[in-house]
Amino acid sequence: MGKFFAVTIIVIAIASAIPILRHTWDPPQDISTHGALIDRQTEETMAEAGIAFLAAQFILAIFIWKFSGRDKDAKITTFPGGATGLVVAGFLLVGTEVLALGVFGVKAWADVYFTPPSANAMPIQVQAGQFAFYFRYPGPDGTLGPLHPNLINEANENFFGLDTTNDADSKDDIVTAEMAIPVNREIHLLMHSKDVGHSFFVPELRVQQDFVPGLDLSLHFTATKIGKYEIVCTQLCGLGHYNMKAYLYVYSQEDFDNWLKKEAAMQ
Amino acid sequence: MHDMSTQAVHHHEPTTFIRKHVFSLDHKVIGKQYYALALVAVLTGMVLSWIMRLHLGWTNLAIPGLHFLSANGAPGDVMTPEYYLQLMTMHGTIMVFFVLTTAPFAAFGNFFLPIQVGAEDMPFPHFNMMSFWVTFVAFLVLISSFFVGDGPSLGGWTQYAPLSAVGAVGGPGEGLGTLLWAASIGIFCIGQLLGSLNFITTTLDLRVKGMSMMRLPLTAWAWFITSCMGLTAFAVLMPACILLILDHVAGTSFFVPSNLVINDQLQPHSGGSTLLWQHLFWFFGHPEVYIAIVPAFGIVSHVLITNMRRPLLSHRVVIYSMGAVAVLSYMVYGHHMFVSGMNPFSSLAFSFPTLIITIPNTIVVLIWIGTLYGSKLRINTASLFALGFISMFVSGGVSGFFLAQPSIDIMLHATYFVVGHFHMVMAVAAIFGIFAGTYFWFPKMTGRMMNETLGRIHFWLSFVGTYCIFMPFHYLGLAGNVRRYQAFVADYMQPLIPVHRFITVAALFTGAAQVIFLYNLIHSRFWGKPAPDNPWEATSLEWSTATPPPFDNFGGKHPVVYHDPYQYGVKSSVGDYVMQTSPEQVATVSEEK
To answer: Does B46 have pLDDT greater than 60?
Structure first.
């Protein structure tokens, strides 16, 4: 029974590792400038975690195979090095591993969160609400008008609560239900929620950030590949959470300008 | 050493049915009551997970009879999106609080901690009785939300504000359902605080002569450390629940900021903080993970040592590691909030302790595996589950390396990778600990043996089934599959649906295998082979008394302890072990200085 158990553990360990080694379910292809660092960090962690996983399962299995069901008179022996050796090994192996992961991981994190967006980054505002994202572009004046939550009215399509009659800055603002950005241009995303918690997740862009009601948060990124992607909500926000998504179009500068003009005309 | 057990509160054996079996002061009865509650809870939680899994595999599937549970939630037996979230919230809450906290800690701890220290009972039996009944009321309050208004809360077991705090306007179940949730968990906290107080006092004050702290079995140490965590963690969750209730009923705004607009209506709240809830919740929530798993560390050590016929390579190292895990558990909670919008520097501050907490956990695993080397391992259902725990804990643990790093968490946060991680490392691992404890202690608790063949079949199906369910969760997460979705409508998630179907089938099979356990449990309870006092040739105090133990545990005697807890691999008059209470002088392995 012990030997059978040992074999089962080994079979499970190998079977678990196969899809990882074959990259069966990898994340979608990266289209951001910062994503390579995150991907490399993930791969390194996968290598270290994978080795730890396989080593632990194999050793466990081997010891079960070897030491289960022994004779009554068999001699009990002690693992070479005893507890001290294992504690030192634990500290050294795992300590070095986690320290390395932690220290190198800081770089990938810092790239996203510790560097401010560049001065010419393009501002886009995104508002999350049950169960849709809306986007606002500043228009020709380059300034986003102020928000008046009491004016929010979905029936009148005033999703942001803009006062276009009195606020000069709001008059040329362009509100859209889809997000479009020019390729290779840094985007400065200004995020707020109008009701409950939501999140902004675009796997290809390697960005995920919660919307926190009461806080204005921001995020910056640059997309490097033209295409159509999905923005999904990852923070449980109510019954329509699963269906809260929007499309992100990454256009050439020219296509983007045309798109924005078309959207401006529809306001 | 001074015999502290004489300080115990003495109470007489009850004679009426009510005082014997219902409102009992006897820690053993209370332990069994907790176990029974956990059993009812785990069956409820498991059925909920079946329904959810069926829905995730086949979204428009009619599940016969579901409309009986909720006519609105499942019209024509097909689940609505909101009902999925409501079942999910109940599954998580029931499992975390009423199974993973009650079974390994409150159930086994109540039954065995006083016996293992040599006491007649806990020091505050009335508090002990109250702790169970309060927990029972908390369970009823939670379950009642199925049958009121628009059903249970849909906010998830983490109940993030402001969704949880704005009331009915937030969606179905967010009014009365969430209020009942908060009330239930608030009440639950009271039960755990009372229980923790009793556990701590029992360990510190009621040890018999000769039972120094270092002579306590690892289970007793695990329960002691867990109760220290419980005392501080639940003391934070309870006020958080009270504040949440006040936001619902008293017009306060602890967790709701200004200017929220829901359904085009400006909400009448101002000045609250949504992140405050997350900080309070996770300050409880992360220690809670260890409240579930540390007792399992104790049980697995206890069961394995007995079946390896040797003490661990180091008793102290395991105790110190469990202590280190407990202390660190309060410093890591922010890793749940990397993308929450808190200061990005805080993320790094929480990341390092999270990575460091793997060190004591790894050391415990290394000590177990290292002790296995050169042992005389006995394979039985209890030891299989204990070894299965190690395998499961390692598999779930390594995925923690990813989630501990904020940069990687950007991709994996709120995906099925997280679901796979915590189900393996905390939920299933702890459940394996509970199974190991059940097969090991059942003879002492009931006076009868469990059926070994059925036990092994149960183990094999559970072990393989669990991997089939939870390993693919990690793959789904790597591919970006978001959790807490009732259907996968995003284009990039469509190809993942077959994986969900595979998981659903595996979950149904593994769940069905638990019927074997249930049958074994109930059948053996009444018709099992009568158990001897010490069927496993074990050393700790629970095996030195009658099976099942008499009302006062030791039949009017006060045991005296002569040895460290795990004296196996020695030559004594009874075999290869010497009991803690045996005055026999043998050449023993001692760490006691």
So the answer is: yes
Smallest CA–CA separation between B243 and chain A, in Å? 18
* pLDDT over 90, % of chain B: 89
Per DSSP, chain A holds a count of helices (H) and strands (E) of 5, 10
Closest partner residue to A27 (CB to CB) among B404, B411, B486 is B411
Contact A83 B413 (CB under 8 A): no
Query: Could you tell me whether strands A207-211 and A198-202 are parallel, antiparallel, or unpaired per DSSP bridges?
Result: antiparallel
Q: What is the rounded end-to-end Cα distance, in angstroms, of chain B?
A: 14
* The pairing of beta strand A174-176 with beta strand B265-266: unpaired
Task: State percent of chain A over pLDDT 90.
Answer: 81
Q: Which of B229, B262, B295 is where one domain is finished? A: B262
User: B94-145, pLDDT tens digit by residue?
Assistant: 999 999 999 999 999 999 999 999 999 999 999 999 999 999 999 999 999 9
User: What is the distance in angstroms between the Cα of A147 and the nearest Cα belonging to chain B?
Assistant: 10
Residues A112-140: tens digit of each pLDDT: 788 889 999 999 999 999 999 999 999 89
Compare all CA atoms of chain B with the CA of A73 and give the residue at the minimum distance: B376
> What mean pLDDT comes out for the span B4-9?
51
Shared-domain flag, residues B419 and B505: yes
pLDDT at A100: 85
**What chain B residue is nearest to A113 in terms of C-alpha separation?**
B344
Cβ atoms of B524 and B448 closer than 8 Å: yes
B408 at A interface, C-beta within 8 A? yes
What residues form DSSP beta bridges with B206? Answer: none
| B495 shares a domain with B555 | no
**The pLDDT of residue A102:** 82
Each residue of B184-203: pLDDT tens digit?
A: 999 999 999 999 999 999 99
Q: Of B505, B530, B555, which one is at a domain's C-terminal end?
A: B530
Contact B275 A212 (CB under 8 A): yes
Confidence of residue B168 (pLDDT cuts 50, 70, 90): very high
Give yes or no for A19 touching B (CB within 8 A). yes
| B-interface mutation test, from A65, A99, A154, A196, most B Cβ less than 10 A away | A196
Are both B199 and B305 inside the same structural domain? no
Q: In the predicted model, what is the mean pLDDT of chain B?
A: 94
**The tokens of B213 are what?**
């702290």
Per the structure, the count of domains in chain B is 3
Q: Do you find a cis peptide bond into A27, omega within 30 degrees of 0?
A: no
The predicted structure's pLDDT at residue B4: 52
Q: Which pLDDT value is given to residue B591? A: 46
Of the residues A3, A84, A192, A195, the best mutation for testing chain B's interface (the one with the most B CB atoms within 10 Å of its CB) is A195
Size of interface A-B (CB pairs under 8 A): 311
With contacts defined as CB-CB under 8 Å, which chain B residues touch A200? none
B481 and B349 fall within a common domain: yes
Tell me whether residues A235 and B359 touch, CB distance under 8 A: no
Cβ-defined contact of A94 to B358 (cutoff 8 Å): yes
DSSP string, B227-286: HHHHHHHHHHHHHHHHHHHHHHHS---SS--S--EETTEE-S--S--HHHHHHHHHHHHH
Looking at the predicted structure, is the pLDDT value of residue B7 above 80? no
Q: Is A169 on the interface with B (CB under 8 A)?
A: no
Mention every residue, 6+ apart, whose C-beta is less than 8 A from residue A1.
A68, A69, B379, B384, B456
| Stretch 429-468 of chain B: residues touching chain A, C-beta under 8 Å | 456, 460, 463-464, 467
CATH architecture of the domain with range A122-265 = Sandwich (2.60)
Distance between CA atoms of B96 and B141, rounded to whole angstroms?
16
Residue A236 near residue B85 (C-beta atoms within 8 A) = yes
pLDDT of residue B1: 44
For B407, name the nearest residue in chain A, comparing CA atoms only. Answer: A109
Residue of A nearest to B395 (CA): A53
- The whole domain housing B330 covers 287-530
